[in-house]
Specification:
The structure is a homodimer of 320-residue chains. Chain A is built from ten helices and 13 strands. With 320 residues, the first copy, chain A, is α/β, with parallel strands linked by helices. In chain A, a hairpin with a 2-residue loop joins strand 2 (13-20) and strand 3 (23-31). Chain A is globular. The interface between A and B is large, with 42 and 42 residues.
Chain lengths: 320, 320
């Protein structure tokens, strides 16, 4: 079977792609419309899949389907246990989609799918042990070892965003204080910039760009823009963020001993502005035996990593 | 094959045991005499194994042998790459022992063997994902998932003793500053007690017991004894040690998501004096989803864990 379909369900949009071997032959994005419930989304996903197959002349029974869903997933049972973004609880995704499409369907957490795609066809291609992190709204990690995802008990391994660091003062949505993702995430970057400007009264071009109280609309992307204009606040925010992320990654490397660490997700658009201080911190905090054998690289597949990873995961799950 | 031999090579002594099923049928300890080189030790191990087999009436070809060696091990190649304690470099242990005994031989790092034994027959018995740490001269960890050890790239996963924590001021032998094992180890416990008494001038029964400058002879065991006499310094040292160890374990749990965390090694003799603050810190630093599904328990096999784990590892390696 050389065709496989990947479905990357996000809080706002759902991306659907048809892979022909390693190539994305066709793809489409539809609104998730989480408020309308899972069955509405499943109907629209099934219709979109049929449309893609029709356009590419692929028979409806010649595919496998893999789906990435945010939140806690029981990948063995095919159930989305708790997806806060979608307001889903105990949704039997695999059963519902199999009814609609009549082909093998598999699901897993969206970050695992993203890293699976990068490990097989992206920045981790050809590497045995791949640790991937996505720096987006939050921060999460997944490990692919010898082509297999690492799950741990309850499939809960890799919540790198929720290790509390001693020097991080922020309270996290999870209830803990100091979680890495309160700093090392798109929201964390914006928050730190706001704190330096509004709380500490530091001069910054960001103040001019976002004059309103609380700096509404300020994003991590704006901090990168300000960085490129030499703004001291933006430079400090990305350095601090890189240092904390580098500390977390040093801990993860010491536990997992990957061969490569790839950094993706929306906030990774900061690129070397973020990766340079990440590498500096890792070199400082890792035994040289680890540091000398790893590389820290940006993710390579861009927005398509989730769809590609989901498609490959669905294919590989059906083959097992 | 129901007989298997385990060899636990330490810096001072080497323990050798014959397992009959799950029972240690016979065992013996010999001096390692590291200064005399590996071949002397291999000769004496082989003679001791033959002696144990003779005593139990087991034929010399009816066994498998597993060996735990401290340091960095290439377990696939059967080579001890670098064992500082033994002053071994690139010693082909498996080949040399196979020549002598003519049976299947496997080796791995001694901490992995210890945790493997505990996972299969000790405190992790019947549990899918077992994280074990040994708190001895240093601190190290290993993970057994579904009966298999987790290795990572270069077989280097799990150096929990070498994650640097922000509030630890000590320089580590590895070259980093703040490594967890500079505090959470037998040497770390003694060091902290010395610092409180000698550097900070705190009153302590330990000062009376060890009046000499630098408090020579003071061990972690003495700190436990002082703790039991209500000594404030000893209580503070074990609380601090437990807090830092708990922080490291919280990070490890978030990465690996084990079902059980078992704490062994010499300094684990402190028992609940150490485990109580460990658990407190873990509960404070872990998302409740993790905390609620794990237990933190002392290792169960005592001194025999290394020999038992090595024996089972040799048996399982031969069966693969």
């Amino acid at each position: 079977m050389s065709y496989c379909v990947g479905v990357d369900i996000g809080g706002t949009n759902t991306a659907i792609g048809l892979l022909d071997g390693e190539r994305v032959a066709a793809k489409e994005s539809i609104p998730t419309l989480a408020g309308e419930g899972p069955d509405s989304l499943f109907d629209r996903i099934a219709a979109t899949v049929r449309g893609l197959l029709g356009r590419c002349g692929v028979p409806g029974d010649a595919i496998t389907v893999g789906m990435g869903v945010p939140g806690f997933i029981d990948q063995e049972g095919g159930v989305a246990l708790n997806s806060t973004n979608l307001r889903w609880r105990d949704v039997p995704v695999v059963a519902r989609m199999r009814e609609r499409l009549g082909v093998p369907v598999a699901i897993d957490n969206d970050v695992r799918m993203y890293v699976y795609g990068e490990a097989l066809l992206g920045a981790g291609r050809g590497v045995r042990h791949v640790l991937g992190v996505t720096v987006g709204t939050g921060l999460a990690a997944a490990l692919v070892s010898d082509g297999r995802l690492f799950y741990g008990g309850g499939s809960m391994a890799g919540e790198l965003g929720h290790i509390p660091l001693e020097s991080i003062p922020y309270r996290c949505g999870c209830g803990l204080t100091g979680c890495l993702e309160t700093v090392a995430s798109a929201t964390g970057i914006a928050r730190q910039a706001r704190d330096l400007v509004e709380r500490d009264g530091r001069a910054s071009v960001l103040r001019e760009w976002f004059p309103g109280e609380g700096m509404p609309g300020l994003t991590a992307r704006d901090v990168s823009r300000a960085y490129d204009e030499g703004d001291a606040v933006a430079i400090e925010v990305l350095r601090r963020t890189g240092e904390q992320l580098g500390r977390g990654l040093a801990y993860a490397v010491t536990m997992y001993s990957p061969d490569v660490v790839l950094v993706g997700g929306g906030a990774a658009a900061a690129g070397e502005r973020l990766l340079a201080p990440v590498r500096e911190a890792m070199q400082r905090l890792l035994i040289s035996d680890y540091w000398e054998r790893i590389s820290v690289v940006p993710a390579a597949l861009g927005d398509e990593a989730g769809v590609i990873g989901s498609a490959l995961y669905g294919r590989d799950a059906a083959a097992r």
